[in-house]
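notes to self, project folder thing:

trying the whole complex as one job this time. last attempt i did each chain seperately and stitching them together was a nightmare. two parts in total, labels are on each line so i dont mix them up again. if this works i'll redo the older ones the same way
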Amino acid sequence: MKNRINILLIISMMMLSLLSQPSRAQEVNFDNCWRSQRYATLLDTVQKAMNKPIEDTYKQHDFIQTFGCAYEEDDIEENSIRAVYRAIIQSIRNRKLSLRDDLDSVLRSRPPRPDNLARDYSIYVNIPTDAAPRPARYEIKILNLEAVPTVESEKAVWTRIVTRYAYKEDFNVAPIAAITPSEFVKVMEESQVILRALERKKFAKVRKILAMENVSLDYPKSIADLMFGDSMILFDEVELEKTYPGIYLGKGIFACETPTNGVVICKFGEERLYHLRVDNSSFRRTVPHYAELNYQAPESILQCIFLKFCHEKPRSLPILGTIK
Amino acid sequence: MNMRFLWLMVILFLLVTSCGWTQHLDRILVPQMERYESDIQSTYREYQKIYYEKKSSLAELRAFENVISIYVSQILEVYETLSLSGLGELEIPRDIAARALVYRALIFLEKAPLNPEYYEKACYDYYNALAMFDNIESIPAIFKRLPEPILVGANEFNRLIDVIDHKGSDLYAFGKVRLNLRNFKITTNLDIDNMEFVRIECPPDKKKYTYYAAEQLIKDNFKKVLSDEGQSTTFLALPEGSYFIRPKSQSASRHIYLSAIYVRSNQQHNYFVEPLVDWFIMYEDPSTRKPKYAKTASSDSENPIKGNGKDENKSAGGSSKKGKSIEKVLALSQLVNSNLERVDSNSIFNLKDPWIRNRFATTAAEIIYAHVETINYYNCWSRWMLAWIIAKEITNKFSPESIVPTELIKLVHEVLKGI
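result (full assembly):
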């Protein structure tokens, strides 16, 4: 009897300690936003997967292997579609082709999911030639499609696909394919360096990576057009001629230098806490690849970097004095 | 052939009747709105009498408020009918509807010293009135001449902006926060009923102002956006200060910083609200744009992003700052001159003499420049409000004692738009 009571007590204590823990989704490691006790980063996971060479059977039949991953949506199916889309687009880029079909519609009509059997797709592409582009059928095989909880998202997905022309004649006239497995992963790697640097407030390093001193390649018109890595100018509310640089990260969050508080991570509107204003005609894009690949920084990391320093911020807007 | 002729007749008949019906609708509804407006004016006058002569009769005051609210809702209903019908000109009905809302705001302001909640109520009406002109080129009704002058206390006013300037300083203690909730999905996991809207900081002189309506408005819009629509827009009237939304159960969580709002008085802040991991983020849409002074040579070159807190003019070379400012004032006076031809310049001041006209353009340009180069430019409610402030200053300098001409407000607004 006494033993049973003891067991019951132990079980109830274990239950209590489990309940008192914060829920998984709310767990944030403010010491290092990229470190989690539970999960690896998606980048590590995909890079490990990318070490796997293409199987000989596929190689002999002119297939090429590409990879894709996604973490942006809070839904495995949506992420699966994005990951496969990215992998297919990579293969199209490697072969210097262009799409004839609406790839997004093709994937959405028969969505790839880790748990279903939709593994083979066929689309039409254009092969560049000296004259008019030559239409060709293109085969896609999904070899791996896995949902993995990662630091970025608990519903992250990565995929490995192989692709080839359906007919040998097309292969013979097509340009030689490059072997880049995934440009998106490269971009993820660079962005991770940027976000880690900003986490340690190393603004100069980020400016160098993003080549902010270079000539702009594009001018986003409003915050709706801003992408990760776009730069902007903030000006001093009081001394209007003084300006400070800022870098957009995503979801309304950006990093900037301030007159007296060094580098801060703000959301739009908070720059006013430091007597600054965003000049919305100053948005610039000096590196194109984030926009080209539609890269968005992981929400969990953005949230962590933003919250990491929020307790250091002033609680109210400074008094301006002479507003009429 | 006969059949075709018959069809043609039927179509012609329908066209004629629909046109006639439109005119008929306008002819009935607009005079009805005008009658209601006149009733509101006289009720407002009576309200003031009761308020200042027999202060004890609170029930009577309430009755007057109810009467005015009925008139206002009637006017708004008619305006909505006319705007939904998509037929006819909306300028007059819109002006009447906006004025009705401002009248009610003025009544609320009368009573507010007895019950501070009325400041907040007045603000919602005032903001609604201004919002009617948000995406419209025409000048807001508060700057236009009233059909009949209005008596407030012992003073007679011809425009609502003059009344607001005289009595409505409390409206300027609030800021308008426009919330645009977007990208929410049916799966977004938020416990809306368990949220609370809290003020964390507020200047001592603004503590008397309330923000009772905000929490419910936020919750309603969250429910709307999560139930079906994915996107929803609302606005809040909040006294100056810092606020955030937090879950009642986790009041000490750092997550609340994601939903912080910073409000400055007499300004409009446009906030986006979007989901972020397991909570949401509220961030402002930065609407500030440094003036380019389109015609000055110095504004043409593109500055690469350097900015490290240094004064870029200074680094460009010693006295260039003064030269640039002269250049900018010149560009502005050219802009004033060109816009003078577009507005009815004769109703501004007596500007027929070319020398006076030139002098006016220079004075106006100098005053506009002085405002544009200060924080006022970036912290003013709207371009119309800034135009009003600048127009007042120009009038004071150019023709003191006279009222600010509406055409002058239009002129300054056009110049501000052009820079």
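what i see at first glance: Residues 16-26 of chain A have pLDDT under 50 and may be disordered.
need to look closer tmrw
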